[in-house]
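Interim report, section 4.2 (structural modelling).
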Amino acid sequence: MKHGILTDILDYSNRANPYPLYEELRKTPVFHDGDGPYVISTYFDIQSLLHDPRLSSDARNLAATAGDPLAESGEEGAAALPPSFLKLDPPEHDRLRRMTNRPFGPPHSPHRIDGMRDDLRGIVTGLIDNLGDPGRIDLVDQFSYPFPVTMICRLLGVPREDEARFHVWADTLAASLDPDPDSDPTERDKTTHDARMELGMYLAGLIEERRKDPKDDMLSQLAVAHGEDGSMSTMELLSTAALLLIAGHETTVNLITNGMLTLLRHPDVLRQLRETPGLAVPLVEELLRFEPPVQLLPQRTPLVDIEVRGVTIPKGSSMWLILASGNRDPHRFEDPDRFDPYRKDIQHLGLGSGIHSCFGAPLARLEAQLALSELARRLENPQLIEDPPPYRQNAVLRGPRHLYVTCDGIRS
Amino acid sequence: MPDGALEHLKREGRIVVVGASLAGLRAAETLRDKGFAGSLTMIGDEPYEPYDRPPLSKQVLLGRAGAERTALPRRREIDAEWRLGVPAAGLDMAARRVKLADGDEVPYDRLLIATGVRARPWPNEAEAELEGVFVLRTRDDGAALARRLDAGPRRVLVVGAGFTGSEIASACRERGLEVTVAERGDAPLVGALGGVVGAVAAELQRENGVDLRTGIMVTALEGDATGRVRAAHFSDGTTLECDVVVVSLGAQRNTEWLSGSGLGAGPRGIACDAGCRAFDIRGIVTDDIFVAGDVARSPHPLFGYQFLSLEHWGNAVSQAETAAHNMLSESTDRRPHIWVPAFWSTQFGVNIKSVGVPPMGTEIMITQGSRAERRFTGVYGYQGRVIGAVTFDNCRWLQFYQQQIEATAPFPPPFPTVDRRPEGQKALPADFPDPSLPTHGPTITLSGYSPADRRMTFTPAGH
Amino acid sequence: MLRLVVDLNRCQGYAQCAFLAPDVFAMHGDEGLLYDPEAEDAQRARVAQAVAACPVQAILVDELDMAAAQGAGEASHA
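Predicted structure of the assembly:
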């Protein structure tokens, strides 16, 4: 009966609502079929494993990936760069993450993100001002996509005049994570490769420039850093910048889009948010539980045979931790399939946990809080044109490809 | 309950809480949460509403928060009668009355004792009276010491390198003050974490400019003509000029007021069962007197039913909640207090956390990270099982080791981990000092087994 | 004035509070947290963000009137 449930989860036709499949999966908390991955789907198991030092995030510890349909998907072109800290274990992970954090957050840069609140507001206001015909808005292309890319440009210190070029590369790379099955794979790979090369060249040039003439932005600070952890090589820097771009972009797009979709499906909550913008704060946490932008973590492997719920997971096996399923685990959350921003207990797995927990979490939170409260405030009587909306291909970074909305007007 | 006594208690009973600090407050909130509608009296010897102590040796000394601004947030309204600034002076168990120092008597149906501990004073009273000699336990202590540090003393001497002493030294260094730490043991934190980890703490202090002197005792404090401290004399014959001395020699339990009451209370605390009910001096458990927080000593199934005294913030909260629940429950609905000991400290920019009972450990293995980098996880072993763990800037792994302790997992851990270094390939002797010698700062005191155990002695108060 | 306490046994140094309300919460080293136990009223909205964002729900705030905090939420963005 369970045969093929992983195939079903990856199957595009289930993208709009994978939650019944996760519910089925939770009946076998450690699911394993043939030479496929070991799949963990309940809250407490996932939470424990994210803090288990016997688990590695480094693909070099994988014994075999033949049976894992998500192994290294869409990452082929990245082989030229060293692995980012997302795919490293301590101490390398800790060292790179600490260095990346130095110009980003506390203890060394405690006001960086807080100081971007005005920038955030300005970008959101500008994007909503320019939505055009209120009768048909694509919230993805016109809002959710451009917003985080612009934020990352500001954070890294990409000059304003180069932001447009940056958007083109970011879009191409995003598309590569989400390939259209009907397009020509050779052509697709070439486009991706070219964008990656151009972006790499551009960033390398910018890094060079900032080394000579550092400014207050993150790229400058990373380029000239020489703290207790030493300095990043140019290759490490490129890899880190690419990680910030991809990870900071894809996830936020989905968070905001999933958020608007959920609000449009819950008009009462949308109205309450319009009346009380501060509701965005707990609402975004509930959203991270209810519709997390990263559905599962497909890259963990045990360094030794481990036992989970009486099942032995052999050393080197590939493991998936289904965060989105843990978030809907009825043993953890009361009435888990109900979206309720007033929930007292929202300790979700949406941003992971443990040493690999989301690096950009505070920025993602502020982006989503502001985006959703402003959209709620300014869109007059918004309605979904299509429900469910067309989804992106990607089952891991799951979210709508387009979100067509019609409204009566746009408030100032 | 067939006769409805419990319902009656909940509706119009009288509950008295002696001790208006963290444990007392959380117990009171829990009592109200559980539907207690009767009269609630909170008795506290300090004149302040409940406040949080951990910031006193950290934020407050660093000048980032005022000592008077550490009042604890409330979880809910507790509608209590507060008797603050009046210590409890006695207990009449038969008449069910608490006597106050001002002569008042407060009757109770259920009593919770959460009188905590106080700083152990400098043993020579005249020297302790010198201006510039401090202890650090209360809000007033914190305010006075912070004021004195603000004035820029030339040299601070900290006597005792337990957690509080080490945090004080850390704050002094962060403020650019010269500081000497004198410790009787071989290293800082040695009583709580053993010699292997103590050696790391010692390096940390020295790297940060602390003049750390170990294996030494302060034999006398010397004042000038105006009664201000000016020097300290050490057991090795040397003398140190200093204008501030912070005595950080651990804590004493506040049980003297129970002297002669018949309750099983003494210098090691008040013995209670796993359900927080106090034992009387005959070793018989009472049914109307409960204990929580630093003053309690209770048996723990994970640690051989040793009676543990825990000077831990989290224990105060957890034990208070359990005690409050049990005060209002039928015996079959009562819960055991089986909180796994845990504490934290932040000093010299390093976050130190621990779970379990490291001082029971005979061996330690550095399973992750490196001591030289000041980022590591150490696991303590006792009779072939994991009994405790400590992390230095590695706390996200700690819950895994807590599970190992709870599961009585084998020691040394028979598996590889991420970030295993050459130093983590084998276990080392944990190197705790002889437990029969008092140390300056174990935050867990092992005080014997059950009341029937021969090692257990009831020490009458007024020792 | 807003009284608060952090359960530092729960805290794992994710620093969300220090990002979102940097004048109330500060990291001390990579993992340690120091906070002002009595935050100013002006910090109310930021503290509410910190409380909600804490991945281990370790921050306890007194009388956090969510409605008041939400009302102030608008101002904090401005």
